[in-house]
Amino acid sequence: MLIKLSNNADLMRNYMGASEMLPASRRAVMKFSVELAPSGTAATPPAYARLLRACGIPQATPTVPGRIGFTPVSNVFESLSFRFALDGMRYVIPTAGLVDSKVSCQDVARLNHCLLVRGIGHDDSDHTS
User: Fold this and answer.
1) Which residues, 6+ apart, have CB-to-CB distance to 7 below 8 Å?
2) Model confidence over 77-125: pLDDT tens digits?
3) Which residues share a beta bridge with 92?
4) 108: buried, middle or exposed (CB in 10 Å: 19+, 13-18, 0-12)?
5) Backbone dihedral angles phi then psi of residue 73, each to the nearest 5 degrees
């Protein structure tokens, strides 16, 4: 997974002391791919279903019992929040984005995601439990 934070803060210094700037940015892009694989159980959405919903492809109402389908929408997108740690700082990233697929007869089918950040902030909650 590639996480690129667009921040010009120079946080590495040759002396000790607090920084007057926080390592945060309002923009970021996350690019990654997931294997296009079924859940293994009939009528159960695959593990990547949440990623599809954040890209404007929610689960459709089943027309055939036991089948899961997805239909693109253009007006109401869901979003996801990723929580991760980078250089000792915990971040929360609310995202929505784009997805495309790569399918060939000689390779594993994959969904390529490009999630765009709506805003980035620090995660002050305690996730030790």
Assistant:
1) 23, 24, 25
2) 788 888 878 788 887 778 888 888 888 888 888 989 888 776 555 555 5
3) 83, 121
4) exposed
5) -125, 160
